[in-house]
């Protein structure tokens, strides 16, 4: 079997973190309270929602796919949690079961994409629609269209452990684990290989269908958990609670330097993308722009982030190529001697 190497730290990831830092400094110069401890903690909580929603999206994109069922799986996470908790199930058990069922829904996506060869966009949209229909059939939403969530979810999203919210610590641990999975494990190398070139990966002995199935399963679990903590933070849940995170989950991946075509990127880049989007969303209202102006600036900054990340990756690739080319030694002139 051909030895496959996972990519090392990308300059694109560094570029994404740098853009986040620049935006944070600009916001702090405009409003000194932006850098306060309370505000930073709030930003980390908001970024964790994007980060968890984009976690599975990262794995799916790296393997050459896309998951458009993320917002409905987030809604499922919150509403199904409420359904089981109000039925008497302990909050912790309900959260674990929601994540497990989210993974099973992801498996359905994976079966459709990997085995039935249905295009990812069509398959995940269809599954999202089925999940939406199921949630409507529960009849849990009150007259305001909302449903309460158990105390365990509220605690997970709101309580602090030391200087940081619990959810931020959980996100950090998960980010380290996923980063190691992608960079240090055979499973991570297979994900990159499948996304880079499916046929070459298959000829190398990789079970392409299994890799894609696992990526979609993890995406379903991550999206369901994101819905749980988002509902816990808000204090209730509703059908459209995950809608803003469809765009955000994809934008965080590409701002972090991943190729939308697969095979290139890191979860740490996605973490940087999630932080960048969160800081950007929080700072723009400080400038009192019109709604149209906010959307224009938001779009321009995202395009800038994508350009910086992609340019950073290309620059690093050029540097590495040059480093592998050893220069030819200079030719020494031939010395000829004439016979006396």
Automatic annotation (TrEMBL):
Predominant place of localization: membrane
Membrane-crossing segments per the record: 41-62, 92-115, 122-141, 161-182, 213-233, 245-263, 270-290, 296-317
Gene Ontology terms, MF aspect: transmembrane transporter activity
Its membrane topology: Multi-pass membrane protein
One GO term describing the cellular component: plasma membrane
Record keywords: Cell membrane, Membrane, Transmembrane, Transmembrane helix
InterPro entries: ABC_transp_permease
Keyword Membrane: yes
Localization per Swiss-Prot or TrEMBL: Cell membrane
Pfam family of the protein (one): BPD_transp_2
PANTHER family: ABC TRANSPORTER PERMEASE PROTEIN YPHD-RELATED-RELATED, RIBOSE IMPORT PERMEASE PROTEIN RBSC
Name of the protein this chain belongs to: Ribose ABC transport system permease protein RbsC (TC 3.A.1.2.1)
């Amino acid at each position: 079997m051909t030895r496959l190497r996972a990519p090392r730290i990308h300059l694109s990831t560094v570029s994404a973190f740098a853009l986040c830092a620049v935006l944070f400094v600009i916001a702090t110069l405009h409003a000194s309270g932006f850098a306060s401890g309370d505000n930073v903690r709030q930003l980390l909580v908001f970024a964790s929602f994007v980060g968890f929603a984009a976690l599975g999206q990262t794995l799916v994109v790296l393997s050459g796919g896309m998951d458009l069922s993320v917002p409905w799986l987030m809604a499922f996470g919150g509403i199904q949690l409420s359904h089981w908790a109000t039925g008497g199930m302990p909050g912790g058990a309900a959260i674990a079961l929601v994540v497990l069922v989210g993974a099973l829904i992801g498996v359905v996506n994976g079966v459709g994409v990997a085995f039935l060869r249905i295009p990812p966009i069509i398959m995940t949209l269809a599954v999202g629609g089925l999940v939406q229909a199921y949630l409507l059939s529960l009849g849990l939403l009150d007259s305001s269209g909302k449903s309460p969530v158990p105390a365990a979810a509220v605690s997970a999203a709101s309580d602090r452990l030391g200087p940081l919210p619990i959810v931020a610590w959980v996100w950090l641990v998960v980010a380290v684990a996923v980063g190691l999975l992608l960079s240090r494990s055979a499973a991570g190398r297979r994900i990159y290989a499948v996304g880079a070139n499916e046929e070459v990966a298959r000829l190398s002995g990789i079970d392409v269908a299994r890799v894609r199935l696992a990526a979609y399963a993890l995406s379903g679990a991550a999206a369901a958990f994101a819905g749980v903590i988002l509902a816990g933070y808000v204090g209730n849940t509703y059908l459209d609670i995950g809608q803003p995170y469809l765009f955000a989950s994809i934008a965080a991946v590409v701002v972090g330097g991943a190729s939308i075509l697969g095979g290139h990127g890191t979860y740490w880049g996605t973490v940087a993308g999630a932080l960048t989007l969160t800081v950007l969303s929080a700072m723009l209202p400080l400038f009192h722009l019109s709604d149209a102006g906010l959307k224009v600036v938001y779009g321009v900054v995202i395009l800038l982030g994508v350009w910086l990340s992609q340019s950073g990756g290309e620059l690093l690739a050029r540097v590495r190529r040059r480093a592998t080319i050893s220069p030819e030694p200079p030719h020494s002139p031939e010395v000829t001697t004439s016979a006396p």
